[in-house]
Specification:
The chain is of the alpha/beta class. It has helices at residues 9-20, 36-48, 66-69, 100-110, and strands at 29-33, 55-57, 88-96, 117-125, 137-141, 148-154, 164-170.
Length: 171
């Protein structure tokens, strides 16, 4: 897939919000997985007009490859500013791939309590699952060539400050 054919991540956030909107009567709490998922969760909070702060989760200590990879240099604190017990939680990530990050996030989430339900909202699902994990809400089934990876970036410049955009990387 050529970089010029990557979808507009900001438009995808609006589409994802439209998919989630009919389920707001459950009062879901958004929990973004660092870093791309945290950015998407922030954007969804704005688009859905939610007033409650979002949760932010760093799965570094919960990954099943932690003993091999060690601590990621950009480890951030997990912040869950609401009671998880009995809540409908919507985990938010940018890309769903093997399912291992989602599994780690669910494990960490349960350290904070037992939610009523846990859903998963992602901008892109690139397949390649190693665990039986599926997105509840997804706007793009991405097909990538072998050795390619998809990265969500947040603009830093004056024109693009805070805007989300996809980047395609080759291994």
């Amino acid at each position: 897939m050529a970089p010029e054919h990557l979808p507009d991540a900001e438009a995808q956030c609006r589409q994802l919000a439209d998919l989630i909107r009919p389920h707001l009567q459950q009062r879901p709490a958004l929990v973004g997985i660092y870093s791309g998922g945290a950015w998407v969760a922030e954007r969804l909070r704005e688009l859905l007009g939610l007033t409650e702060d979002i949760g932010l989760i760093d799965v570094s200590f919960y990954r099943d490859d932690f003993s091999k990879k060690g601590l990621h240099p950009q480890c951030r604190p997990t912040v869950i500013p609401f009671d998880v017990e009995g809540r409908h939680i919507l985990l938010v990530d940018d890309v769903l791939y093997t399912g291992r990050t989602t599994r780690a996030a669910i494990n960490e989430l349960f350290d904070y309590g037992r939610p009523a339900s846990v859903g998963l909202a992602v901008l892109a699902d690139r397949g390649g699952r190693e665990l039986p994990v599926a997105a509840t809400h997804c706007v793009w089934q991405a097909e990538l060539a072998a050795g390619q990876s998809l990265t969500l970036a947040r603009g830093e410049g004056e024109q693009t400050h805070g805007q989300l955009a996809w980047r395609l990387e080759n291994a």
